[in-house]
# Entry
Amino acid sequence: MSSSSNTNSIVNVQWLLQNLNNVKVIDASYIPTATRNFEEFQTKYILWPKVAAFTAEHIPGAVHFGLDTAYFPSKFIKFDLYPPEIFQKYIRLLGVNNDDHVVIYSRGPAAGMMFASRAYWTFKDGKWGREELIQCNNFLFSEATGSHVTGAISFPMANVIGSGGFISKEDVDSQIAKLGVTSGDQVYVACNTGIQASVIFVALERSGVKAKLYNGSMTELAYRAPELVNATGSV
# Structure
């Protein structure tokens, strides 16, 4: 996965082998941890260790993007975003600078695409909050079951991910068309913690759909606007 201005930002192994000396490679592999205490985090900076999957093996020259370090736990959001200047300091510590062409990969769910998608989204625009949610349309929810935003359309990761990663753009286009969404439409995506929805964000972007991801997702919404939560499982 490549963070560039090109909307077709998904690259394959052959491309990476040919360009390995010209890019900065980020390994975003992650092992989920218990929710961190936000009050403790306010007073005690915690630099979480690299996950075992990275220390065991990784692409030569890759650096580790740790989700528990790249984000912080706020009162309502499990993976909240630092101010840009703080995030920039972290990325600079990884050896990544403004003009670098970055390629991101990971292991784990969604054929390894889930945590890489989250890291990719963090480098992009499209971040938004609860205030915009209240007045938006075209809302997709990436969890297959459970509570969701009232009126949201279920669009799970399985619609865009196959055994080898993201399915073809043409197949994703077909899935999106079934929703009545077309290129140029503004779509909003969410899940439980803002992680799975990152996969949908990447797929929509590749298909030319303007996507925004609600970072707080259901975790924040349940606290701050419970009237918008549908816990019945129905639309």
The chain has one domain: 2-230.
